[in-house]
Design a protein that fits this description.
four-stranded antiparallel beta sheet; about 375 residues; about 20% helix; elongated; alpha+beta
């Protein structure tokens, strides 16, 4: 018997929520065959079988949260491999007593004098959210009420009734933001870049990314990692920018690699691919790890400046606000130009105010080179 535990799915992740099992108890699997889809704070990820064998037990049901390192499945007659091939031959299936499944419970619907079917877990969720099962139209197999049915009904409750339990990305995001708030000593500096003479059609996001690379070379202290436990700071030469992507499920931050050594067209193609994968929730875990500094172009939606959150072990994030028309002085004369608001937030445990100000100065100067 081999117990397969939930592996590390990404930098700093502590848990994942089961979305769907692709196998059942008693099934035979081969190494690297998809076992289960789990949702993290960033993506839905398929977890493959680590070995070939027969599934004896599944640890959890869809909707359950599993900690990294906790048991996920138990495999019998398993043979570990390092590749997606079967080593040896699988034993004949043993007679296994069917796994116990909790029976559906029938609940009377007082208004309609009808019956509804729901598992104990779904009934518990309904109680928690203040939902009357008798008022729900079931959408599950055999007219059973599902978790989604209950949550949909909870969202439709009038007034300030029971709240909706956060799941998946939003729950993990809340945990990560709380952790960042507890660790980081936040500080920020702000300015505006005059981009009034940029050529028409200039790609704002790519232009800012290139300026970030220039600023990192001018002030390396912000392209760094900091281990709060050991107090060790590591300055990094390569610049890997985390790009904040807004989705319906929450914020995803894929990483655009080695931006200082890439041409604008290559950066744009890479960014488009990352954004598409992030919004489709198909982005692989390795594309979400290892950012050395982050950027949020929130001005595409709205807002001039922001209180940005630095997520350890990074020490800085740059925000780009909504570009606006404003009055500037040129040759002693007031003129109307296009201004780009810039916010630099940094971890004051690691970065000094002078380093932050010099970084922002270099960023602004590079952005204004077209002027």
């Amino acid at each position: 018997m081999t117990t397969f535990k939930l592996p590390d799915l990404g930098e700093g992740l502590e848990e994942a929520e089961i979305v769907a099992w692709h196998v059942g108890e008693g099934d035979h699997v081969i190494a690297d065959q998809p076992l289960v889809s789990v949702e993290t704070d960033k993506a839905v990820v398929e977890v493959p079988a680590p070995a070939s064998g027969r599934i004896v037990k599944l640890a959890g049901a869809p909707g359950d949260v599993i900690k990294v390192g906790a048991p996920l499945v138990e495999l019998a007659s398993a043979e570990r491999t390092d590749a997606g091939t079967v080593v040896g031959e699988l034993a004949e299936p043993e007679a296994v007593e069917p796994a116990y499944e909790p029976p559906m419970e029938r609940v009377c619907a007082p208004a309609a004098a009808a019956t509804a079917r729901a598992t104990p877990a779904v009934r518990a969720l309904a109680t928690k959210l203040g939902v009357d099962l008798g008022t729900i139209s079931p959408s599950g197999p055999d007219d059973s009420i599902t978790r989604d049915d209950v949550e949909r009904a909870a969202r439709a409750l009038p007034g300030d009734g029971a709240g909706e339990a956060m799941r998946g990305m939003r729950r993990a995001m809340a945990q990560r933001m709380a952790k960042a708030h507890a660790e980081v000593v936040p500080a920020a500096v702000m300015d505006e870049a005059d981009i009034g003479e940029w050529p028409a059609g200039t790609d704002i996001s790519i232009r800012v990314i290139r300026a970030i690379a220039t600023a990192c070379r001018a002030e390396p202290a912000l392209n760094a990692r900091f281990d709060g436990g050991s107090g060790a700071r590591r300055l990094l030469e390569r610049i890997d920018v985390g790009i904040a992507v807004d989705t319906e499920d929450g914020l995803i931050v894929p990483v655009l690699r080695n931006v200082g050594a890439r041409e604008p067209a290559d950066l744009r193609a890479g960014m488009e691919r990352l954004r598409a994968d992030a919004r489709a929730r198909t982005i692989p875990p390795h594309e979400l790890r290892g950012a050395t500094i982050s950027m949020s172009n929130f001005g595409m939606i709205g807002g001039r400046y922001a209180q940005l959150v630095v997520v350890p072990p990074q020490v800085a994030i740059i925000g780009v606000g909504r570009v606006r028309d404003g009055v500037v002085a040129r040759d002693g004369q007031p003129v109307v130009s296009r201004l780009m608001p810039l916010t630099l937030a940094f971890d004051h445990r690691v970065v000094t105010g002078g380093e932050g100000a010099r970084f922002l100065k270099a960023l602004k100067a590079d952005l204004e080179k077209f002027c």
